[in-house]
Specification:
Strand order of the largest sheet: 1-2-3-4-5
Helix content: 55-70%
Radius of gyration: 56 Å
Oligomer: single chain
Order of helices and strands: HHHHEEEEEH
Structural class: alpha+beta
Distance between the termini: 135 Å
Number of helices: 5
Number of strands: 5
Length: 257
């Protein structure tokens, strides 16, 4: 470019020294100025484009680095989620196995609970007649639970065990409560003394009349007066009004035929 300008300048000087070439010189001068201006404009435009590209390059580089970092983070998250998915798959399989096992247990447990319920009903039917209303009501409620399809097998199991424990507890305790008994054609009010599951005794409120429940005959039988003092002591012990001690009472039959 410098050599070209020197050449053009030399041509202009030579032209100015030749007559008639003044106009031509001016034209050349104008042409040279335009050429120089175009060259400068082109250089400036090129510089602008280069600057703009550098700016864009910086932005694109920053964006690339950002995307690269995000990709690494997403890859790490994907690996984590893949591991979690595998764990959940294993857990679902385990839960499915537990579900199948639970169904199997329920299918086997239902007949077993029905059998226990039937044995409880038979026990109460053949047992000594004490707390008849309470025990019958409990068995009736248990039957409703067993027949209810909306009650879980776990709740049915709990109810059956509860009834079993209560019946078992009767054998380890004594108690006294007031009730009426039927003696022949008469109904008498007095204290019922339950001696475990062994026997039920009756003592009138005035302590002048005693009876024992005959399980085989399914009826109350009058006791000799000699047993009244011992029975009175038993009532006092069951009511926790005196310490436990040995008493003389007839046991009779333990079960119905």
């Amino acid at each position: 470019m410098k050599h070209k300008l020197k050449f053009i300048g030399a041509v202009l000087v030579l032209a100015l020294t030749i007559p008639g070439y003044a106009d031509t010189a001016r034209i050349l001068e104008k042409s040279v100025k335009q050429s120089v201006k175009q060259s400068i404009d082109t250089k400036q435009e090129t510089q602008k484009q280069q600057d703009a590209w550098e700016t864009r390059k910086i932005k694109l580089t920053a964006r690339y680095d950002q995307l690269l970092s995000e990709n690494e983070a997403l890859t790490h998250t994907f690996d984590q989620l893949s591991g979690e998915e595998l764990k959940h798959t294993d857990l679902n399989q385990s839960l499915e196995q537990e579900k199948l096992e639970s169904i199997r247990i329920q299918e086997e447990m239902q007949p077993f609970l029905r059998a226990v319920q039937a044995r409880l009903e038979l026990l109460v039917k053949k047992d000594a007649s004490f707390l008849k209303t309470e025990r019958t009501t409990r068995l009736t409620n248990l039957a409703h639970v067993m027949d209810d399809i909306d009650v879980s097998i776990g709740e049915k199991f709990r109810k059956v065990l509860e009834a079993l424990f209560i019946e078992a507890e009767y054998g380890n305790s004594i108690e006294v409560y007031q009730d009426k008994i039927q003696i022949g054609a008469n109904e008498v009010q007095g204290n019922i003394f339950r001696l475990g599951r062994i026997s039920n005794f009756f003592l009138s409120l005035d302590n002048n009349f005693a009876a024992v429940f005959n399980v085989r005959q399914d009826q109350w039988e009058i006791l000799d007066d000699e047993y009244i003092p011992g029975l009175a002591q038993g009532v006092e012990m069951a009511a926790k009004r005196r310490p436990v001690e040995l008493i003389n009472l007839p046991l009779g039959s333990l079960a119905k035929k």
